[in-house]
Amino acid sequence: MWKSFLNLWLKFPCPLCQRTAEDVVCRYCQKKLESCRLKNSQGLWTGDLPVFAWGRYEGQLKRALATLKYNHHPEIGVLLGKWLAKSWQENNVIAPSLKLTIVPIPLHKTKLQSRGFNQAVSLGRGFCQETGDDLEPEALMRVKASKAMFGLNPAQRGKNLQNAFAISENWQKSSKSRSILLLDDIYTTGTTIKEAAQILRQQNINVVGAIVIATPSRLEI
Ligand SMILES: [Zn+2]
Q1: Domain 39-219 classified CATH 1.20.1740?
Q2: Could you read off the pLDDT of 27-77 as tens digits, one per residue?
Q3: Is the pTM of this model over 0.85?
Q4: What is the pLDDT of residues 80-116, one digit of tens each?
Q5: How many angstroms does the Cα of residue 61 sit away from the middle of ligand 1?
Q6: Structural domain boundaries in the chain
Q7: Cα of 9 to ligand 1 centre, how many Å?
Q8: How far is the CA of 19 from the centre of ligand 1 (A)?
Q9: For a designed S-S bond to 14, which of 21, 137, 160, 210 qualifies (C-beta 3.0 to 4.6 A apart)?
Q10: How far is the CA of 158 from the centre of ligand 1 (A)?
């Protein structure tokens, strides 16, 4: 009797649709999110800075990322991070013997203060819980408060993010010999990830690539 009482008590409304949820999101939303999953997550895993993506930035996944960021639901990030990890492992992208360090793209401190958390760190927590990789949320700092990228052309985006990142002085030197996988929520033009990778590579740090939750369907291969 106690168990059924607790079960009833532990059910929370789904943050995406307010139905009762037994997990982070309800079964209905889980299904809708699953339908946004890419058939080929490795379509952008090529070139100098390969990118592995979980899903298409549309529908319920777009909504989930907005709810995560703007309605303060870091648990959605942890859930999506776990799904990203499972897909990453299933795809065997990199030999599992290679120990990776996950570096989430940082927010500028004023944005971090207003949002209360960095969504990429939540994603990283979920990812590393599944894979056992190390999470380094403090490795990079965003030293320049860049403008919103929406509506900017590629050249303007590049300029907007120029010198936006720096390597944190507190970052342990021993970690710098590791292989880095950058992590962000959305990949569009790749300007953010390229800029972050460049800062690390300038210090001879090995950046293997980047992992993201969503990418627009126009980039789907
Ligand atoms: Zn729901």
Answers
A1: no
A2: 999 999 999 999 999 999 999 999 999 999 999 999 999 999 999 999 999
A3: yes
A4: 999 999 999 999 998 878 889 999 999 999 999 999 9
A5: 12
A6: 39-219
A7: 18
A8: 6
A9: 21
A10: 37
